[in-house]
Amino acid sequence: MKHTLRASLLLLACAWPVCSQAADKPNVIIVITDDQGYGDLGFTGNPAVKTPHIDQLRSEGTLLNDFHVDPTCAPTRSALMTGRYSARVGVWHTVQGRNMLRRREVTMADIFADNGYATGLFGKWHLGDVYPYRPEDRGFQQAVYHQAGGVGQAPDYWGNDYFDDTYIVNGKPQRFEGFCTDVWFGEGMKFIQANKDKPFFAYISTNAPHKPLYAPLEYSEPYEGDPRVPHPELYGMITNIDDNVAKLMQMLEDEGLAENTILVFMTDNGTAAGLDGGRGYDGGMRGEKNSEYDGGHRVPFILRWPAGGIEAGKSVERLTAHFDILPTFIDLIGLDAPAIDFDGTSLRELLYGDDSDWPERALVVESQRVVDPIKWRKSAVMTDEWRLVNGTELYQIEADPKQQNDVSADYPEVFKRMRAEYDHFWDDVSREHDLTSYMVIGADEAPIVTLSSHDWLLDQLPPWNQTHIIRGDVAVESFWAIEVEQTGEYEISLRRWPVEADKGINDGSYGKAYNYQKARLRIGDIDVTKDIPAGAKEVSFKVHLEQGVTKLAPVFIGPDMSATPYYAYVTHQPKPGWQTPAGMGIPVYDPSYGRVPPQNLIRDIQP
């Protein structure tokens, strides 16, 4: 199942001349959108959405037309970044501490950076918000991003709403003007222009069209009243992405970069909002985001590289997946890389030749979304011809793309073989399912660490979104999994609201008010309780911690209940006032700053 690929040896076998010319290394741009399904594009057959520039890109590049990712976003991104199964690298959920890419993993950005590339991320990361999991810890030299899995989720800057928000720039908050997608592309294009004289890797990762469905009116209004449209805001977000792709492609032309730039467009899972009330287009498949059926994980993947001889308009119909992309880049470009046990393999043969000698292989995608993975849970075993779903249903995919006719009884040998493929996968990756990715405190790379309820290790869904914090949802006792990097003196500040909200623990200005009276700190063998002074915005504790892994399990205590604070801040370099917004260098949230979404709605949100 795994393929050991030593990139330095591949240089000897490089079939395309550009690979051997270091000065001509191609640039690489990946544009990946969030919760946009295969059917949410014009070129895949959607009759209503307008995506003329992505459609043009498809005509200029090669389409991987049986390309699969995981059914949700963080797992997909972990496999894309590493070339390895998401379950192998510790990312099988989007929250609950299971979205952090294990510290040991080598990322795509690491490899590009080690090969002399400028590396930049713009938009969504979703593989960890604290050291050592942040994008700036994982090979990205320039990183402009929102935190967590979406703008407005619990770790993100308080009050972010897609318009004129505060994002993180290389670890520090900075205010921006503009709609979020415009910001990500704008910052990405600035990075490209600043690094055009050397090879660059730009990862432009939009949070759109993830819910909530907010879009500039000039994009949503043209879709109003169209009975084919599930949500005007959704298609407006997609057309805005398309316009930004046009700006990117034009900039590459103007800068003379288009020929020798590998430009990729892809999405991270099936649609989340593209099918509603009989409206929308399903791409001819069953399932949506989080589904084990093809509609949950088959997505478009376009690759354009004129100087590399990538054929315009070609369609590759063999089974491919997210974890194939990193080994493919290493092979095509001739990148030096450490020996990595990839689960994916280079697609060079499919891109440059036909598929006559391409071997059949079995791949697995799954949607666990639990703290501890469960065998067969929401799983699909795939070959070119077959799909085994949840270990119980078998579909012959070409004859039955909607996966409506279970033929497991008709093909018992195939059914048995596909189950054996899953058993092999499970026996392999599950050996380390018990490993936890610990958030590190006490590292000099991160003097102050921010923890939020998004990453509670809780058997139920934690309060991962700011709307949950506002409502006071999931007010229960929980904990964070912590690694103390160095023995020493620490200070820990507990808050009901994030520091930038700058509100009292029992203040109800932004949502539900509590009547907490005491704060109790529990970490390791330390158990200390303090009174909460009237009007206090936080309660701080000074403690001595020993190096090692532990649980941070504080609680606020009231007359009728106790619950873990939604936010905690930890430093091993305390200074007077460090626990204030000014002490952390974070601007206080100003509700009057900037524009707000023109739509007076918040659609159902998903992690």
From TrEMBL:
Leader sequence range is 1-22
Q: Which domain of life is it from?
A: Bacteria
Keyword Metal-binding part of the UniProt annotation: yes
Q: Where is the Sulfatase N-terminal domain?
A: 26-334
Question: What InterPro entries does the annotation carry?
Answer: Alkaline_phosphatase_core_sf, Sulfatase, Sulfatase_CS, Sulfatase_N
Query: Where, by residue number, does the polypeptide cross the bilayer?
Result: none
Arranged from A to Z, the UniProt key words for this protein are: Calcium, Hydrolase, Metal-binding, Signal
The record ties this protein, via Pfam families, to: Sulfatase
Do the record's keywords include Chaperone?
Answer: no
Record-linked PANTHER family = ARYLSULFATASE FAMILY MEMBER, ENDO-4-O-SULFATASE
Family indicated by similarity:
Belongs to the sulfatase family.
| Protein name in UniProt | Arylsulfatase
Organism, by scientific name, is: Thalassobacterium maritimum
